[in-house]
């Protein structure tokens, strides 16, 4: 895990200190209205954050979309980003945890990417990944475990594949017109980040309801929303706001006010003192502060009905079981290596406590969570595989 944080830090240094010419365009003159149109942001959602050195443009988004679906972007040509992030599943993969391109298993569940751009930090538990430009280096270059496998030894060979393909040559040139250096890792990252900023989901029944269409939710879903936002279920404290997560930031958020929440929601307690299984202790693996054991980012819940299984390790199979988990105030694992009573964890958030709920109430909250599925987003042509580029 510490590899992940240092990767982010190095990247910032590479960007600013070495000043590789990747066509950073801080002087781009673009209005908010133009950016909203380019990124297709619906009126009720804010403009996502982007760094000044990577203002989204149409050619960068086009290149990023090709790269997202491009298997040649993995060292051995077997995987693309889309292997673990499928559009029909809101860009998650349906597995408990994915396998990287060389067959190494990952410990964490693949995250849905709809509205990921609005999170104040990226991934399940990393307080250092504030921008996609930092985080994307991980799936591209990580060597333990390998995801796409662009490790130092093979990176140039992989990038040369794009220089040798005339159609990609044009896409890179259009996206980074003030640079003549061909494909570079930073350009790949900048283009992918620009494409990810178009993965905005804002047309679910819940959105239509928020926009005043009262019939968009069933009466059961309205009841579920009320419970979700009430003091018995407590969900909204951690999953509040338009992105259903208190980990939230938009383009106008003042750096001084942005919140970086992480919580232990009582999934594990292997030693009676609040430890999670050693394979993944969340924020603790970066900070080594014992109080950070089991701290994870509250996941945004958009499209959550299509991103099963749930939690950082995919250890809960259904939405109903997730809601039941919260009614019990944590999870008791009776036997096996992960045995322990999460309900009694001293590190669990005070907002996760047992409460009595009827089956009808649990069903209503599940029905509300199902209203967050955005059928337009998971089938949107502009986010689908464009096929190989051609001249
Ligand atoms: C082998 C499977 C795999 C591949 C390939 C992969 N990812 Fe991921 N992705 C994951 C997993 C697992 C996580 C959660 C990582 C964590 O929490 O440490 C994740 C997290 C993310 C996140 C953070 C989302 C959030 O809500 O914070 C983004 C963005 C992302 N991936 C984009 C990409 C892109 C772009 C590519 C291609 C360059 C890619 N991924 C390739 C499995 C994969
Ligand atoms: C104290 C903060 C907190 C509260 C209260 C809370 N959650 Fe969560 N939620 C989290 C965190 C943190 C995670 C990720 C935990 C992990 O993976 O270890 C999460 C994960 C989830 C997930 C899984 C998402 C995914 O994509 O895997 C769902 C669904 C969910 N919560 C729904 C709810 C509902 C419904 C309620 C109310 C009954 C609720 N949460 C209350 C913090 C909270």
What do you see in this structure?
By secondary structure, this protein is mostly helical. It folds into 2 domains: 207 residues, Cytochrome c-like domain (Cytochrome Bc1 Complex, Chain D, domain 2), CATH 1.10.760; 169 residues, Cytochrome c-like domain (Cytochrome Bc1 Complex, Chain D, domain 2), CATH 1.10.760. Helices cover 35% and strands 1% of the residues. It is built from 16 helices and 2 strands. The chain has a two-stranded antiparallel ribbon with strand order 1-2. A hairpin with a 6-residue loop joins strand 1 and strand 2. The two termini are 41 Å apart. The N terminus is likely disordered. The site of one heme C has 27 residues, from helix 4, helix 5, helix 6 and helix 9.
Features:
2 strands, 391 residues, two-stranded antiparallel sheet, globular, binds heme C, 2 domains, Cytochrome Bc1 Complex, Chain D, domain 2, 35% helix, mainly alpha, disordered N terminus, 16 helices
Short description:
This protein is an all-alpha fold and 391 residues long. It has helices at 2-18, 32-39, 58-68, 81-84, 132-135, 137-141, 152-164, 166-175, 185-196, 205-210, 219-228, 235-239, 284-287, 319-327, 359-370, 375-379; strands at residues 332-333, 340-341. The chain binds heme C (HEC) (2 copies).
| CATH 2nd-level architecture of the largest domain | Orthogonal Bundle
Number of helices: 16
* β-strand amount: under 5%
Distance between the termini: 41 Å
Structural class: mainly alpha
CATH superfamily of the largest domain: Cytochrome c-like domain
Described by its quaternary structure, the protein is: single chain
Radius of gyration: 21 Å
Q: Please estimate the helix content.
A: 25-40%
Quantity of strands, as a count: 2
Q: Low-confidence segments, ≥5 residues, pLDDT <50?
A: 1-21
Q: Major beta sheet, specifics?
A: 2 strands, antiparallel
Give the C-level CATH assignment of the largest domain.
Mainly Alpha
